[in-house]
Amino acid sequence: MNRKIALITGASRGLGKNTALHLAAQGIDIIGTFNSKAQEAQALVQELEKCGVRAAMLQLDVSNSASFEDFATQLRQTLTSVFDREQLDFLVNNAGIGINAPFSETSEAQFDQLCNIQLKGPFFLTQRLLPLIADHGRIVNVSTGLTRFALPGYAAYAAMKGAMEVLTRYQAKELGARGIRVNILAPGAIETDFGGGVVRDNADVNDFIASNTALGRVGLPDDIGAAVAMLLSDGGGWITGQRVEVSGGMFL
Q1: Active centre residues (catalytic)
Q2: Closest CA to 110 of 226, 177, 102, 135
């Protein structure tokens, strides 16, 4: 029996890498994408193979929707040659960046960059990959706690993620006929290098977040990777069209 296959964008580092490792621990084969960090991507392939799963990494710039046709062709070839499959089972739209800029100072270039990576990219990438996602498969998009609570400096970023939350409901509705479940995961503040590592490295920021979180600490990458794995597990089969916040209870 063929194992499940997950495609994770932005898998070479951070939450994408952690998600890949959590899914591999469940025996799920991994196809990851990276933008520029080819060496880190190859190191992850070796790490995943040590977990007993098959793995491959493909280059993808999610901000360049014109490249998605070629990427789909490369993905199809990889599915056949590495995994002996024609379709994958899970898509995790994880790749992204963060820009901290006050609303009054956000430039059009910053806005466009966020839109291309956080909204336009996953919109059209998912659309292009639909023929390669098996019926009864699953899609997990990634949002942020900042769509529920507001912190200065993230107006454009949170607006894109808010749009992704609306898109998720439409995807769940329109793809339900194929049995495809679509949900969106909204992490709270996590100790990674995202945004320059401020949550991880700035003690004052870390303490502030922890003091405003019901579970009394800042989130860790394992908290998010495990939550994605939960949504993709058999137990998540009756969940679709939902925003699932994974924040430990920030700002309740």
Answers
A1: 157
A2: 102
The per-residue pLDDT for 192 is 80
What is the distance between the alpha carbons of residues 143 and 92, in angstroms, rounded to a whole number? 12
> Is the separation of the CB atoms in 79 and 86 below 8 Å?
yes
CA dihedral 89, 161, 95, 169 (to 10 degrees): 10
In the 8-state DSSP scheme, what is residue 236?
G
Torsion 130-136-142-146 (CA) sign: positive
As a whole number of angstroms, the distance between CA 82 and CA 79 comes to: 6
Q: What share of the chain is helix, strand, coil (3-state, %, to 5)?
A: 50, 20, 30
Residues 149, 251 contacting (CB under 8 angstroms): yes
Sheet holding 88-93, edge to edge: 55-59, 29-34, 5-8, 88-93, 133-142, 181-187, 243-246
For residue 192, what are its two tokens?
A: 């990674």
Cα 75 to Cα 70: distance, rounded to the nearest angstrom: 9
Q: Which two tokens stand for residue 225?
A: 């990777």
Run means of pLDDT, 10 residues per run, the chain, 252 residues:
90 95 98 94 96 97 98 98 97 94 98 98 98 98 97 96 98 98 96 77 89 96 97 96 98 96
Identity of residue 186:
A
* Token pair belonging to 63: 């901000």
Token pair, residue 125, equals 């990438």
CA-CA distances (angstroms) from residue 129 to 76, 87, 166? 10, 10, 20
Cβ atoms of 141 and 182 closer than 8 Å: yes
